[in-house]
Every structure is written in C-alpha cells, then in structure tokens.
Amino acid sequence: MTKFKADALPLLIGSLPMKDHEAATRLILEFTPEIPLWAQLPMYKEEGMAYQFLPGMPGFTESATGKLFIDETGDGFDAEYLAFYEEYLAVTEADQSLETSRFTFTPETGRGFREFIRQVDLDKDRSFKALKGQITGPFTFTTSLADNAGKAIFYNEQLRDAAVKHLAMNARWQARTFNSRGFTPIIFLDEPALAGFGTSGYITVTRQEVTEVLTEVMDAVHQEGGLAGIHVCANTEWDMLLESGIDIINFDAYTYFDRFILYPDKIRAFIERGGIIAWGIVPTADVDDIFRETQETLAQKLEAQIREMGKIGIDRTTLISQSLITPSCGTGAISFDAAQRVLSLTRDLSRKIRS
C-alpha cells in the first residue's frame, strides 16, 4: 500500500456516452480533478469491454459478422502463441521496452488513454492525488470471450494463461505510464461477471481459480508502485475479494450495501490492513433514480451506511479516510444529460462528506 490517502475523494468508473475523447477528458478533469481517469467511449466498438484488450492476443479473430473469438485452428496459431510468450518473457525478464510491446493499446483502442496523457502533461498545476486507469478484469474477459468452438477461454488453461498475462502487462504499462509522471497509479479491474460467480452458470469454477487470475494482474500493478482496485456492479461473494489482497473494493452501495455488510469480520480486517472502500453510492442503472436523488438524499443514505459500519467496529474517521465516492457503475449506456448529472452528484457528494 502506498501513502495515497483516499479521504472520500470522487472517482469515476470509466465509460461515458460521448464520441469526442478530448471533450470527455476535459469533463473528467472538471468533475474529478484530484483523481482523473482516461475515458472509455463504447460508442466506438474498439472501446468495448472485450475488444479494447484483444489486439495482441494470439488467435484473435473478428468474423465478417463482427463476432470476436480466439481461433486455435488456423495454421499460424502455434507460431502466434510462441511469439506471444517470447515477447512476454522479453518484457518481463530481458528488459525489452513495455512501451513498444504488443501489451499496450493500439491507435484505435487507445484514443482515450493517449488523450488523457496529453491533457495531464499539459496541466501546469499537476496537483493530482493519483491517476486512474482500468482494464477488463481477467475473470470477465476470459468468461465472455470464446474459442472457435464457442467455449469460454477461461476453461482452456493455455488460452486463459495467455489472456491473464496480456491483461496484466497492459495494467502494468498503464501503471508505469502514470508513475513516470510522479503520480500514484490506480488501476481498476472491471469485473461485472463476478456477479455470477457461485451461481449455476459457473458451477465448476473454484475460488482458487478466480483468486489466481486476479492476483496475477494485481501483482503486475503492485510491481509498478500502483494500487489495484476491483469494480463489481452487482452482488458477489465479497469475502473472497476482501481476502484477495486487492487494495480498493468498489461496490454498488446504492443497491447492495445490505449484501456487502454481511461480512463484518472480513470488512474490519480489510480496513485494518489499509484497504479502501469505493462507495458506488450514486445510481446509474435507473434514470429516474439519477434525477430523483440529490446531494442531500445520497448523503443521508451514505451516512446511514457509515453508521452501520460503526456498529461492526469501524469508526467514522478511519472509514472516511479510507473511502472513495463513485457512481455505482459506468455511464456509457445512459444519456449524456444523465451521465453529466451522475458526475455532478459524485463530485458534490464527495465535497459534502469531506466537509
């Protein structure tokens, strides 16, 4: 854990319903100037959750209908697979530049990242507390991406290992880029699929397997002096994540606090080791909620949850110092007006809680 202090600062999840990366980055810097992030704009297919991190993977194929999958059947797959691991070893063991490797974004997938770095470098004040990036989490990535037979690559140990290493190196590169500018890197693993862990859909998946893929990516972030966060926008087995070694847990506090608080001993241990809770208290799923809630109503809701945390032995001052204020999820799927209100509520609620 670095010396970074969360102090209930506002933080965003990543996606925005916009097409202009420059304008999106300016908006992020306006509403979250202490911990800005690079914008994902899912209006571009190259910035979708799967596509953005697929280039560079051996066997990456896009069909004529736009289907994305890993094809192991082609004549060149074995050579691609070998080249992938040779480059991985060159980057991790032979001092080859990560910046020029396959593990960075392409010109098409990295427009938001490049624009973010450009504007960060232009900032004369440079008073950021940290810089945030994100990747599609390894569990979500490997369970949503299939091989040529239609089976999720999570169940193929060879392909799963390559995918996790690919994501880990991208996370490491983002963290290194931020660190080189003198700011604490925060890299989130976006893991919506973990909402299904423990259900019949993943009945053969073990906790150890999930923890292993998360740990490999977290370790890559830690190696660059960064903090690793995880974002799950629904319920999951929170005890598994609280014990995982993750630095920041971002959950939908607007909807699922009653599920999260079911693990009091694990939460206390997480806080005691310096873990940070990112409260996804600003709603994003229902437009009516977005426009009905106010800074005051959300503050009341959050303060009630903080009092519940007090009942399990976590005092308010400690909790606030190890908290961040976030939307419950990204805003890429809602209108621009609704997204802008989410950003405004997040900023204003953070100010109220800190005051």
Task: Give the total of beta strands.
Answer: 10
Helical/strand content category: alpha/beta
Runs with pLDDT <50, length 5+?
none
Largest sheet: 7 strands, parallel
- Alpha carbon gap, first and last residue: 26 Å
User: What CATH first level would be assigned?
Assistant: Alpha Beta
* Tally of alpha and pi helices: 13
CATH topology: TIM Barrel
What sequence of helices (H) and strands (E) makes up the elements?
EHEEHHEHEHEHEHEHHEHHHEH
* Helix content range: 40-55%
Mean pLDDT: 96
Rg estimate, integer Å = 20 Å
Strand order, sheet with most strands:
1-10-9-8-7-6-4
Counting structural domains, the number is 1
CATH architecture verdict: Alpha-Beta Barrel
Determine the strand fraction and express it as a percent band.
Answer: 5-15%
Q: Any idea what the shape is?
A: globular
Task: Characterize the structure shown.
- There is one protein chain.
- The chain is built from 13 helices and 10 strands.
- The protein has helices at 21-31, 77-93, 111-122, 138-144, 157-179, 207-223, 238-242, 253-260, 264-272, 287-292, 295-311, 316-321, 336-354, and strands spanning 9-10, 60-62, 68-70, 130-136, 146-147, 184-190, 227-232, 248-251, 276-282, 323-327.
- Strand 6 (184-190), helix 6 (207-223) and strand 7 form a beta-alpha-beta unit.
- Helix 2 (77-93) runs parallel beside helix 5 (157-179), helix 5 packs parallel to helix 6 and helix 11 (295-311) crosses helix 13.
- It is globular.
